[in-house]
Specification:
alpha/beta, Rossmann fold, 7-stranded parallel sheet, 7 strands, about 15% strand, globular, SDR_fam, NADP
Length: about 260
């Protein structure tokens, strides 16, 4: 069974790997045998993550890039192919959030969130997808969605619509590329404390979230690794595509 979830011989590009959630996934992939390429803007955060990967016996490296620039993402792919020779797993996890009331959202804030949360995913799927399609690579693309992309969530209007677009894009690409053996899935975290949502998690909101979560707690970043590993493994999830893999402690099952 261990070989079913092994990523030995695979190369995984983790965009947003300097963050808490995708950083944990990057470590998990490295421990499963993959060479991990962390893509982000903060070299210091990347170095700490790579140090943990090395201690665990894994291997990887960092590429600094603006995920919302197609030229930059093409540069990432080119560098990965030069250094690693191939890529067969892509994770799109860069993200930003804001709790600005709807009627007060300025255009520049809207554009910033859409560019990072939606446009960046679109561009990476386009750049890496072309490489996968042209080279007939049975790749796995995992896009980070959100519970707010599935059900309405107060106070994060632009974030929610940006993530809903990611869910829709993932399903459309899954349908398009399934005949080629390229799988596209959405990993959907429930409530996990992360850098992008710390300003939103005031005491009153925390109480509401926990009261709506049967597990009665927030998730821990490491609890996303198993689901991500399942979706990344061609052996374990060869017939899984277009799926929204929810990891939420029961939040989406709760009514009253």
């Amino acid at each position: 069974m261990s070989s079913l979830f092994s990523l030995a011989g695979r190369t995984a590009v983790v965009i947003g790997g300097t963050g808490e959630l995708c950083g944990a996934i990057a470590e998990g992939f490295a421990e499963a045998g993959a060479e991990v390429v962390i893509v982000g803007r903060d070299p210091a955060k990347a170095e700490r993550r790579l140090a943990a990967i090395t201690v665990a016996g894994g291997k990887g490296y960092f590429i600094a890039a603006d995920a919302s620039s197609k030229l930059a993402i093409q540069g990432v792919l080119d560098e990965v192919l030069t250094k690693s020779g191939k890529c067969d797993i892509l994770i799109n996890g860069a993200g930003v959030n804001s709790a600005t009331p709807f009627l007060e959202i300025e255009e520049d804030e809207y554009d910033r969130i859409i560019n990072i949360n939606t446009k960046a995913v679109f561009l990476a799927c386009q750049v890496f997808g072309k490489y996968f399609v042209e080279n007939q690579i049975p790749a796995s693309i995992i896009n980070l969605g959100s519970m707010s992309g599935l059900v309405p969530l107060s106070r994060v209007f632009t974030y929610s619509l940006s993530k809903a677009a990611v869910h829709n894009l993932s399903k459309n690409l899954a349908r398009e590329w399934a005949p080629l053996g390229i799988r596209v899935n959405t990993l959907v975290p429930g409530f996990f404390p992360a850098e992008q949502n710390k300003k939103v998690l005031v005491p009153e909101r925390i109480a509401k979230i926990l009261g709506h979560t049967p597990a009665a707690r927030f998730g821990e970043a490491k609890e996303l690794i198993g689901a991500a590993l399942l979706l990344a493994s061609n052996e374990a999830s060869s017939f899984i595509t277009g799926h929204e893999m929810v990891v939420d402690g029961g939040y989406s099952s709760m009514t009253i």
